[in-house]
Amino acid sequence: MSVTLERRIALYSVAAIMGICLLFGSVSFVASLLIIQYHQRENLHNRLIQVVVRLENAQQSLSREMENLAANPIVPTALLDSSGRDVYLQPFFASHHFSVPEAQGPVLCDFEGKPLAGQIHNALGCFPGSSPVLAVLENEQPQVILDLDLDPGLSSLRALLFQPVRYPGTNRVEGYLVAALDLRALLDDPSLSAPQSTLLLHRVDGRLLYARQDGRPVTTTPALPDLTQPLFAQSSFQHLKLHVTLHTLFDPLAGSAYLLTGYGLGTLALIFLALLVSRRLARHLAAPLIALNEAARRIATEGPEVERVQVNRLDEIGQLAASFNHMAVVLHREQRQLEYLAYHDALTGLPNRLLLFDRLRQAITRSDRERHRIAVCYLDLDGFKPVNDCHGHKNGDRLLIELARRLESAVRAPDTVCRLGGDEFVLLLAGLGSQLECTRILERVSRILSQPHVLENGQTVAVSSSVGVALYPDDGHDPDTLLRYADQAMYRAKQNGCGKVEFFGALANG
User: Fold this and answer.
1) Do residues 262 and 28 touch, judged by C-beta distance below 8 A?
2) Which of 207, 441, 458, 462 sits at a 20 to 30 Å CA gap from 397?
3) Which residue, 488, 491, 466, 465, is CA-closest to 475?
4) Where on the phi/psi map is residue 464: left (φ > 0), alpha (ψ -120 to 50), or beta?
5) Is 162 helix (H, G, I), strand (E, B) or coil?
6) CA atoms within 13 Å, Cβ hemisphere of 52
7) In the predicted model, what is the mean pLDDT of the chain?
């Protein structure tokens, strides 16, 4: 039944999703043909923005990391600690890596332009006497310059960042950090290229610094179109006055072919996705019902102790699961109550005959192993019937409950107090070393039971007990025999007078 429901849900879902996909695909394709040129131009603009964002994110990350390095106590301390510099700073720089892979450095330089520590293998020096170094030392502010401005003969295209380092004790600039951002490596990223397009980096005055067409460097460039964006316009790099331009040839027919192919493949993908989604949707909707069915089957075979069905939903299925779990909890509680009543007295809560025999069998097993005695003591209350007759069964029941509590307090922890019915109780005393130990326990029981009890109406009553005792292994070897002999001894104790204790062994020998 559950499989049929799951299949029906899946079929309905596939039909609905496929219809929506085909309708959406047709309308979108017709609309896209009308605005394809606009889309191409937008795509070109977005790619240009992507290039700018890629470069500016790299610049921001490098600037932020350089500020953090300059503020790290290790760096300014190393300016004046020549002896310990190689111990902690050089390993620190050797293990340091910028989050931007195209960044090089850092190199720590003192105010004279001498390199103290850093990743010198990147061919990055201190540039002593250069204008940015002098500005860093005089203005105490970060400076940026292109390496081409320092040496026009270089083939590289790097933005050099000079970060002042202040000594904590004086707050004066005692040196600077140098790092380089390789702009050529950033622009060579294949993800920034576009088909039939030319990517340009140039100064605001038109001086060309970088050109690449279809992923390959070029020397001749087309006239600059209007798709141009300033670079580093809102950062400390802004004075470099760099612009990024993307030039392309618009081809509406090629775009239409790509669009048609894309929509065809997309429709097939959506149909396949519809099959997967419908299957998962069907399982999602049918899973709670299948789980409820499985839980009901387990409750029927194993009982209500099985785990509850977890359904985190607020709809009708969730309400059904909550009601089912509540029903299972009620069944489990009632089953535990029935099991408790099967082995305990309903009035006093003491173990009944069934539980007594079970514990007696366990005690016999332990006695055989540990070589000690067991006493089965059959108690019958003396003077209880007049309480029921004169003061009512309600007071009689209260007295029985009180006497049950007294019996439990009078025996030892491993002993068992049982009520067989009416005013008859059984004490199971295990681990006895001798008959004298049993006698002492029964004397304490008799003394506690005989204490007066105040009834609900304010009157005071007192009862005693007649006790018959059968010992294991002296008198019997099984629960039935021991209980029967204890009962016989109890009747002999009653014949001898109220409050007496009679051992079956003395009765048999007499």
Assistant:
1) no
2) 441
3) 488
4) beta
5) strand
6) 21
7) 78
Question: 234-249: per-residue pLDDT in tens?
Answer: 676 777 777 777 776 5
| Residue 313 CB partners (closer than 8 Å, separation 6+) | 288, 321
- At 365 the pLDDT is 93
Higher pLDDT, 353 or 122: 353
**Torsion from C-alpha of 222, 157, 227, 213, nearest 10 degrees:** 50
Structure tokens at 239: 């004075």
- Provide the residue type at 270 as one letter: L
Give Cα separations from 103 to 63, 124, 136, 185, 186 (angstroms).
11, 11, 20, 9, 10
Q: How far apart are CA 424 and CA 465, in angstroms?
A: 9
C-alpha angle 62-63-65 in degrees, rounded to nearest 5: 65
CATH number for region 353-509: 3.30.70.270
Mean pLDDT of 359-381: 93
- Orientation of helix 252-302 relative to helix 36-71, angle to 10°: 70
- Among residues 442, 441, 464, 466, the alpha carbon closest in space to that of 453 is found at 464
Eight-class DSSP state of 468 = E
The overall pTM is greater than 0.70: no
List the one residue out of 258, 276, 269 whose CA is nearest residue 24: 269
Each residue's pLDDT tens digit, 159-191:
888 888 887 777 788 788 888 888 888 887 777
- Name the pLDDT band for 377 (thresholds 50, 70, 90): very high
d(C-alpha 34, C-alpha 104), whole Å: 48
| CB proximity list for 396: less than 8 A, separation 6 or greater | 384, 387, 388
Name the percent of the chain in helix, strand, coil, to the closest 5. 55, 20, 25
Beta strands in 220-269 (DSSP E): 228-231, 242-248
> Are residues 252 and 40 in contact, defined by beta-carbon separation less than 8 angstroms?
yes
User: Hey, how many other C-beta atoms are within 10 angstroms of the C-beta on 103?
Assistant: 25
Strands 501-503 and 464-472, by their bridges, are: parallel
Superfamily of domain 35-250: PAS domain (3.30.450.20)
Give the mean pLDDT of 290-302: 66
Q: In angstroms, rounded to a whole number, what is the distance separating the alpha carbons of residues 510 and 329?
A: 58
Identical topology for domains 35-250 and 353-509 = no
How many C-beta atoms lie closer than 10 Å to residue 73's C-beta?
8
Domain assignments of the chain as residue spans, ordered by start? 35-250, 353-509
Q: Terminal CA-to-CA distance of the chain, rounded, Å?
A: 76
Residue 5 has pLDDT above 80, yes or no: no
Count of CA atoms in the C-beta half-sphere (13 A) of 391: 20
